[in-house]
Structure formats: C-alpha cells, structure tokens
Amino acid sequence: MPLALLALAIGAFGIGTTEFVIMGLLPQVAGDFGVSIPTAGLLVTGYALGVVAGAPLMTVLGTKISRKRMLMLLMALFVAGNLLSALAPAFAVMLIGRVVASLAHGAFFGIGSVVAAELVGPDKKAGAIAMMFTGLTVANVVGVPLGTFVGQSVGWRVTFGIVAALGVVGLAGIARLVPDLPRPEGVRLRHELAAFKNTQVLLAMAMTVLGFGGVFAAITYIAPMMTHAAGFAEGSVTWLLVLFGLGMVGGNLVGGRFADRALMPLLYVSLGALAVVLALFTLTAHNKVLAAVTIALIGALGFATVPPLQKRVLDQAHGAPTLASAVNIGAFNLGNALSAWLGGMVIAAGFGYTSPNWVGAALAAAALLLAFLSAALERRDRTAGTVVAGAAPAREQALAHR
After folding, report:
1. Which residue in 7, 138, 182, 298 has its CB near the most CB atoms, within 10 A?
2. Is the pTM higher than 0.90?
3. Which domains, from first to last, does the chain contain?
4. What b-and-e string marks burial along 200-237, b requiring 16 or more CB atoms within 10 Å of the CB?
C-alpha cells in the first residue's frame, strides 16, 4: 500500500479521536463551564449534525480545486476547530469549535476514500479505503482512552490541544506524501449531483444509515446497560469500549480484504450476523464474559460493513463519486443520531436498558433487506441490458433476411 495511505490514516486517527473523546470528558467540561451534563451533550449532538451538513457543503466548495489541496484545507479547518475548543473561554465558543472541526469530518473521509481508491489497482480499492479507515478504528482503541486519561488527569483543554497537534501531523503528511492526482476531465458539480438519481447509490446510503445505526443503538447506551444489567463497575466501561474498538479494527480490515472479492455476499453475512448478535445482546448483556465478547463482535460486524458500503457508493457513482462518497459518510452519522434517539425512546418507555439492542437488531435486519433488494434490482437491470443488447443484432439479421 502507498505511504500516502498512512498520511490519510493519521488524519482519520485525529478525526476519530476528537469525535469520540468528548464522551468521556463531558463531566469535566460541564463542571468547568458551569453547565449541566445534558447541555454539555450538545457538544456531541452539534458535532454529529455538523458532519451531516458539512459533508456535502465542503465537498461542493472543493469542486474547483484539486483533491489533495482540499484534503489539506480540511485538515487545517480541523486544526482550527480543535484549537478553538482547547482555548474556548465560554461554552458557546467551545460548541462553535466543535462544529468547525466537524465540518471537515465528512468531506475528509469522502474525498479521502476517492483518493485512496485511485492510489491502487482495481482489485485493491476496498482494501485501500479500509486502510484509511483503520486510523478511525485505532482511534477508538488508543486515541480515545488516552485522550480521556489525559483530560481527566491534566485537563480536557490539553486533550484538544494534542488532537490539534495530530491534525498538524496529518496535514504535513498529506502535503508530503499524497500525490496531486488530476481531477477527471469534464466532471462538474451537475455530474456529482446526478449520482443521486441512481437508485443503487441511494440504497447503499440507506444501508449505511440503518446498518451502522444498528451498532450505535446499542453502543450509545453501553454504560448504563453494562453497569445495571451486567454489573460492571463504572470504571470498566472504558475497557469495554476498547474491546469494541478492537472489534472495529478487525472488522474493518476483514471488510476491506473481502469487499474486493465478494462485496454483496460480505454485506449479507455481516448485516445478517449483526442483526442476530444485537438481538442476542439482550440476553448476553446480563453476563460479564458474554457481554464483553458480544461488544467486540458488534464492533467487528458493524465495521465490516464500512469498506464495502463505501466502495459500493464509489462503484455506483462511477465517474463523479466525490460528493456521493462524502454524503455517505454523513449517512453514518445520521444513522448514529437516529438510532440513539430511538434507543432513548424505548428506554424512556420503560422497556429497560437492554431494549435498544432490539432497536439495533431491527435496523440491521432492515439494512439486510435493502441489500437483497439492491442485488435483485441489479440483476434485473443486468438482464434487461442483455436482452436489449441482443435485440439489436436480431433486428439487423431480420432486415438483412428481407
């Protein structure tokens, strides 16, 4: 794999760290600014909404410049947002810093996926995308726990300062290692927008929302679920999230390896198994050992869908994939927000802390049904194309016979 993928992975590591580390630092941030925990939670919500809105916005703004230069600008925006958070004199300023940093998230992964795929041969594209996303998954194993520890030990501002420094390293790596690939000739914004007329692109994005949404329906409420149902101490939740992160790393690498060989079968297996495991989590959540194993499996199966779904969007939006790729990253965060809301609803309705697992299982099962629908439509279109292609020679033969 080209060294340029390492630079993209470093940028992904910084983005993944800043996205998730805030969850472990909410009490400290809330205390310093004198706001409630729910109010501090806006730092999570604001970031997620910024990703959804920023993915298409920043990609459209970057249509006039090279992808390398746009990646560098996005990392500069990421650095600025985290520095603003680190130095924020008031809560509102920190919220603005979080939103500024989030604007880089979707476009970075969207454009980065396109660049990563162009750096390798046709049979290694999903693997290259997975290599970039490895930075995001490793962030959950290393960056988030370390960032939480630093924030709790010497202050959350130091954590965000370190994340900003990671962004500087990623920016330097992109400037030095990523080649300045030429943009496709004749591709304009209208071509990028035309990709959204493709039913297969929309189905892939819907699978992204529902499939990864199933993961976050459970993981969003992992702390109360594990302390109340499994009997873990509060301090153990960090290590359970490390297990989840390790599962993500493994699933991402497996997904990248097999998506280039059998993309749709991989989606069938991973989404089907994810639905089953999430349903079983309502039972295994009451046993410490089984709960820990299940959490790792959820991370692995959930992230095994990421490289194939991202590659599916790139394949179906062939010729002008950048905007569709970025919007698909926003779809992951839309799924996170939707599933967290639905999971909170069933808990509030009195169904217990394990009830979000049923929500997750239903979402993953719905994504599996969409995968079968997508494949069926593709087979129908392929058959129709073969019939049309065969009809022309037949007409020519009939005319010649006459």
Report:
1. 298
2. no
3. 1-183 (1.20.1250.20), 185-387 (1.20.1250.20)
4. bbbbbbbbbbbbbbbbbbbbbbbbbbbeebbebeeebb
